[in-house]
Inverse folding.
DNA sequence: TAATTGACCGGAG
DNA sequence: ACTCCGGCCAATT
């Protein structure tokens, strides 16, 4: 089992997340068949090829908030992109449960 | 080569 | 809701 296979799996899953839905690092890792590798998913997203079209912004922490610290440019960018897709946040930047992706 | 860091997570207290 | 902890392991220092 090579590292690149896991990365490719994550790319696939990422591309299959529907617009207007969100998922977590840990859930992607589980769906890829590697529970416990949430940090690796984070690492993969961090190093996504620049200019790519993968929806990195649809991935948030299992707690329901973006992984970036509030107030940073990345945080704002992610929130904006999700809002444009219809994802709503509560007063504490938490994504409503109804927006979570439920793969069949 | 070794140590540290980090877009994380779930359980326990 | 929060902190502390151990597990995870590629990338960076």
């Amino acid at each position: 089992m090579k590292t690149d296979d896991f990365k490719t799996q994550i790319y696939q899953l990422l591309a299959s997340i529907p617009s207007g839905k969100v998922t977590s690092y840990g859930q992607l890792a589980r769906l890829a068949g590697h529970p416990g590798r949430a940090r690796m998913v984070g690492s993969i997203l961090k190093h996504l090829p620049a200019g790519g079209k993968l929806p990195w912004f649809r991935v948030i922490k299992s707690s329901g908030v973006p992984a970036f610290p509030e107030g940073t440019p990345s945080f704002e960018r992610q929130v904006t992109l999700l809002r444009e897709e219809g994802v709503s946040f509560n007063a504490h930047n938490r994504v409503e449960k109804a927006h979570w992706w439920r793969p069949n």
User: Anything to note?
Assistant: Chain A is about 40% helix and 5% strand. The two ends of chain A are 25 Å apart (CA to CA). Residues 3, 29, 34, 36-40, 43-44, 46-47 of chain A lie near DNA strand C (CB under 10 Å from a C1').
